[in-house]
Amino acid sequence: MSYPDGDDIKLNRRNFLKVGGVGIGTALFPNLLGPQSANAAVVSNALWIPPRISGKTFNLRLGSTTKQMIKGALTKTYSYNGTGFWGPTLVMQKGDDVSLNVTNALSEQTTTHWHGVHLPAEMDGGPMQVIEIGKTWSPKFKVMNNAATYWYHPHMHKTTQKQLALGAGGFIIVKDSAEAALALPRTYGIDDIPLALGSRTLSSTNQISPTKNYGDTMLTNGVVKAQVTLPAQFVRLRLLNIETERVYNLGFSDNRVFYVIGTDGGLVQAPISVRRLLMVQGERYEILVDLSKDKIGIDVSLRAFNKGLAFGYGGGEPASTGTFGSLLNNIDFDVLKIKVGKPTALGVTTLPTTLVKNLFPSQSQVTHSRTINITDNGAGTPFTFDNKSYDMNTINQIVKLGATEAWTIKNDNIFGHAFHIHDVQFKIISRSSGAIPAYEQGWKDTFSIQRNEQVTFIAKFADYASSTWPYMYHCHMANHEDGGLMGQFLVEK
Ligand code: C2O
Ligand code: CU
């Protein structure tokens, strides 16, 4: 495991300045001289809101950075555009043709993948689209996805866990006219808040241990013990799990009801009221929480109710140390402390009764079915699909362009997983363990699959075909993915 050394960091800082000087614009790197470098001794728990980039051209630069996470030494991180941990939020409009320029300023290879986005395989940023050190990769695509929350992150085979653990990632918010027509909170950073949830382990010198399965310290948008003041009205939270292995059973500290309005790939038909929401790695849910009835000044927390998670749910292991242990395992802990503040002038105070109409592919349209097994050859060996470890030179599945397929994923091994497939948004049609929760019945690209469970989904593979560039399907627990629990498929004419 190699760490960026101090000189690299300085060099990269100089590179940022140089890039700024040659015309990409310093506005892209708003936190270049951010609070962490300006006043290193002060540690703020204020929730960090990623800066936004909107338009049709998006410039990203992944580099080695630092962040003052806790008192003492700076923590060495990877981040896009010098943000210190994570990256800017890319705001895209459905229908736009967008171009991205991603520069690799790390001292190792990387890739950048657009998670959940429907695009040509060549533009996908999977393990095949390596960005060499110092080089820029420039994909282009038409934004075809529905308004929802997506994200980008490295997908370099065998180093995804490390690069993600060190902080590399960012949100993508897609907007469209259907969403714009609804009375939903959408003032970014005020009543519309993206939240990347992921614990990390900090060493005695404040450095992230990038190979730990579970972190001991909760980070929310990279902030330890994050707190925020939110207005007394409906607030929209865009939730994302960026853990290696931990799942979150989310709720509020006072057990209040909240409302799921969106899944991975779009809004749902109508808000779904819940008190708990299970989230595995890579999944997104947009929720509304009603703070309009709260007294100004009260505190309420968004909390992981992870105490009592069954074995197989990542982070349910009742161990505080060791390979599968963590101080946050099998306990309830806060992921965000919220103080209720004054409402804004035009805040949303009523819950919309309906949202959007979704036309999902149905079972009668299925043209092909396939089954994929998550296999396990015993303790100490990595998980695989159908007993084959990921191999860049093997195509595991071939799908015909235009096909509507039913995929059944079977998990007969000892642990739960987070199944994810590129290219498509799908509809889950069955879970062998029982009913599909209402909040999972929207457009999805990632789901939890627990021990002895089978999950079937239907997807249509439209628009993009290639006989050379594959898409990936994999477990989104980054250690499982790096260990070989990944396969690839071609969509062919
Ligand atoms: Cu979020 Cu294949 O990845
Ligand atoms: Cu897994």
Description:
- The chain is mainly β and 493 residues long.
- The chain folds into 2 domains: 8-341, Cupredoxins -  blue copper proteins (Immunoglobulin-like, Sandwich); 363-492, Immunoglobulin-like (Sandwich).
- It contains 5 helices and 32 strands.
- It has a 7-stranded mixed beta sheet with strand order 13-12-11-15-20-17-18, with no helix packed on it. The protein has a 5-stranded mixed beta sheet with strand order 1-4-10-9-6.
- A hairpin with a 7-residue loop joins strand 2 (57-67) and strand 3 (75-80).
- Bound molecules: CU-O-CU linkage and copper (II) ion.
- Residues 113, 115, 153, 155, 282, 420, 422, 472, 474, 476 line the site of CU-O-CU linkage.
Write a short abstract of this structure.
The protein is 8% helix and 38% strand. With 493 residues, it is mainly β.
Order of strands, main sheet, comes to 13-12-11-15-20-17-18
CATH superfamily of the largest domain: Cupredoxins -  blue copper proteins
- Gyration radius (Cα, Å) is 21 Å
The share of residues in helices is under 10%
Number of helices: 5
Q: State the CATH architecture of the largest domain.
A: Sandwich
Q: For the record, give the distance between the C-alpha atoms at the N and C termini, rounded to a whole number.
A: 42 Å
**Which ranges are low-confidence, i.e. pLDDT below 50, for 5 or more consecutive residues?**
1-40
Overall SS class: mainly beta
Ions and ligands: CU-O-CU linkage, copper (II) ion
Number of strands: 32
Outline the biggest β-sheet: 7 strands, mixed
Jot down its keywords.
single chain; 493 residues; mainly beta; Immunoglobulin-like; 2 domains; seven-stranded mixed sheet; five-stranded mixed sheet; 5 helices; 8% helix; disordered N terminus; binds CU-O-CU linkage; binds copper (II) ion
